[in-house]
Design goal:
The complex is a heterodimer. Helices cover 0% and strands 48% of the residues of chain A. Chain A is mainly β. Chain A is globular. Chain B has strands spanning 4-7, 10-13, 19-25, 34-39, 46-49, 63-68, 71-76, 86-91, 98-99, 103-107. In chain B, the strands form two sheets. In chain B, strands 2, 4, 5, 8, 9 and 10 form a six-stranded mixed beta sheet that branches. In chain B, strands 1-3-7-6 form a four-stranded antiparallel beta sheet, with no helix packed on it. Chain B has no helices and ten strands. The termini of chain B are far apart. The chains are: A mainly beta, B mainly beta. Chains A and B meet through strand 10 of A and strand 9 of B.
Chain lengths: 120, 108
């Protein structure tokens, strides 16, 4: 069974950097791209970026460019998203998801989500 | 960037009725690369349809997607109690990947 298990909820201070993990199992890590999606409270879904675990290549959404870093560790089958210079508007649930075949893809399986609260 | 507009924002129906959800794109979606997701409170989204009309394994056949170009539809033929949720469309034909703002399907 394919599973994506994300790290637990976090509270971060404004101006700091968050880092969330997404550990996958049930498939070969390098066979699927890993995506990250942001969902602010009561709002819709926003794509942040994607990583190809095979070679580490990434594409980021323009909104997050310069503040986001997505990586993949093939030794632990875990993907990460870092978001720097946090502000209150970054309070959201962050999801990882996987898709195959191309960077631009639908998301076949999702993690359970990680709530990040940015508050002083 | 392709903007997806979903309508209606809220749809109130009863179990057993037919639901029709619309997703309109600001420009043509390349390859009909349009997906639909269902999201229930406190849960991650679930893929219902991809490539405009393909259904993943395990998705009931009461869910059907259709459309091309700029106009897409998700139809739920006979609503079950568990179908009341928020539905999102997503285009993945061009970068950046974008989502619609969602349609809330509520019990009448």
């Amino acid at each position: 069974e394919v599973q994506l298990v994300q790290s637990g909820a976090e509270v971060e201070k404004p101006g700091t950097t968050m880092k969330i993990s997404c550990k996958v199992s049930g498939y070969t890590f390098t066979d699927f791209y890993v995506y990250w999606v942001q969902q602010a409270p009561g709002k819709g879904l926003e794509w942040m970026g994607v990583v190809d675990p095979e070679d580490g290549e990434t594409i980021y959404a323009e909104k997050f460019q310069g503040r986001v870093t997505i990586t993949a560790d093939t030794s632990t089958d875990t993907a990460y998203v870092e978001l720097s210079s946090l502000r209150s508007e970054d309070t959201a649930v962050y999801y990882c998801a996987i898709g195959s075949g191309a960077f631009l893809r639908y998301f076949e399986t999702w993690g359970q989500g990680t709530l990040v609260t940015v508050s002083s | 960037e392709i903007v997806l507009t979903q309508s209606p924002v809220t749809l109130s129906l009863s179990p057993g009725e037919r639901a029709t959800l619309s997703c309109r794109a600001s420009q043509s979606v390349s390859g009909s690369y349009l997906a639909w997701y269902q999201q229930k409170p406190g849960q991650a989204p679930r893929l219902l349809s991809y490539g405009a009309s393909n259904r993943p394994t395990g998705i009931p056949d009461r869910f059907s997607g259709s459309g091309s170009g700029t106009d897409f539809t998700l139809t739920i033929s006979r609503l079950e109690p568990e179908d009341f949720a928020v539905y999102y469309c997503q285009q993945y034909g061009s970068s950046p990947i974008t989502f619609g703002q969602g349609t809330r399907l509520e019990i009448k």
